């Protein structure tokens, strides 16, 4: 699964921006941005995703999903994996 930071890196490079440029524009440190882009941070907070999305002009119209996104961003990888399995189980049981 491709992590969100890799997508932000692709977008940053397509915009011709450096990590320092994004740091100045968003207030996020270039060290944090580098860790995010290189997969060391895999579950950034909704606030960070929204900030970067706004900076790059990416629409993030999730409305009621904000609370769920915030909760998921605090989970460990294992917890997210378990939640995903439960959600898939629920969706599959609907189809039957």
Main attributes of the structure:
96 residues, mainly alpha, 434 Repressor (Amino-terminal Domain), 6 helices, elongated
Note the total helix count: 6
Calculate Rg over CA atoms: 15 Å
N→C terminal distance: 28 Å
Residue-averaged pLDDT: 84
Question: Could you characterize what this model shows?
Answer:
The protein has helices at residues 4-14, 19-26, 30-37, 46-56, 65-73, 77-95. With 96 residues, it is mainly alpha-helical. The model has no long low-confidence stretch (mean pLDDT 84). The chain has a single domain, classed as 434 Repressor (Amino-terminal Domain) (Orthogonal Bundle), CATH 1.10.260.40. Helices cover 69% and strands 0% of the residues. The protein is elongated and about 50 Å long.
Please provide a brief summary of the model.
Helices cover 69% and strands 0% of the residues. The protein has 96 residues and is an all-alpha fold.
Itemize the secondary structure elements and their pairings:
Elements: H1 4-14, H2 19-26, H3 30-37, H4 46-56, H5 65-73, H6 77-95
Helix pairs in contact: 1-3
């Amino acid at each position: 699964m491709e992590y969100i930071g890799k997508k932000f890196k692709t977008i940053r490079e397509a915009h011709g921006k450096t990590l320092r440029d994004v740091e100045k524009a968003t207030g996020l440190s270039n060290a944090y941005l580098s860790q995010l882009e290189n997969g060391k941070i895999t579950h950034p907070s909704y606030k960070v995703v929204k900030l970067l999305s706004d900076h790059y002009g990416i629409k993030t119209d999730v409305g009621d999903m904000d609370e769920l996104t915030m909760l998921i961003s605090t989970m460990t990888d294992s917890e997210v994996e378990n939640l995903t399995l439960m959600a898939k189980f629920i969706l599959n049981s609907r189809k039957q």
